[in-house]
Amino acid sequence: MPEQLKNILWMSEELDFQMKPSLKNEAKTIINQFLERTANPQLSHWVYRA
Amino acid sequence: MSRIRQATKIDLPTSGHIVSHNADEVRAALKNQNLSRILVLDDTSFSGSTNLIIEDLVKKAFPDRRIDFTHGFLILNTGNLGPNPGAKQRLFANGDRALGGLEMQTPRDDGWHFFDLVKQQDLENHLLAVSEILTLLGQPNFEHLASAFLSDENILKLVFPNIFTTEELEQRRSEGHFIGNSKLNGDFHVRNPQLMPNIIGQGHLLPPEDWQGSQKEAFALLIQLEKLLKRREV
User: Fold this and answer.
1) Nearest to A44 among B109, B206, B208 (CB)
2) pTM to 2 decimals?
3) A21 touches chain B (CB under 8 A)
């Protein structure tokens, strides 16, 4: 995984913790799989909200 | 309150906001409360507009009371939106307090509600229609082509399930439940729209031809996520 993408996912994890602590692992995995395929490596961050 | 956007313009400009309570209903609900200090909570604020609309609504309900507003967010924008100040600066300029657990700074940072990609009715067919729009994205006359595609009312409703006509919004406005532009442009307006074309257009997602794997596989992940949502396993 490109280093920048790792940073994005780390940032997403941090925001997820802030936004929705209860987001379950299966949903997190799917979201991360989608972003790994589609996200621009220059992306700043994503906000998770159910 | 919910932001309403103009469905037939490709950049989905804001038409206004639907509010659950009009000024009379706010007054009835809060008349016996001490309103000297009000805390308004929201998840994220980019421009501060939503909070200022709430603040104006409460002030309209209680024009004779002195109220200090504090606005609290999980994420607060401290940057600018084009030539205009972002949320923190606008709320401070309004004489309010504003604080966020995290701060972001546009245009350096940006954020999207991920679940807006997924929480759409008839998701499989919805994504087929979105896929058609995505094929037009690289075209020089994209806006014209996309508008033509969306001019079919059935397709428009498939892409934007939560759609309102101008007449419906004017009816809500007459009841005080819609606060928006004095003149509504276009015939259709939408709540919680699918924003994938806009997210790609702004460079936050890659165009589908650059995705790893096929578009079908990527959309299958969104459909899988929606099934979890429906089973409340998110």
Assistant:
1) B109
2) 0.79
3) no
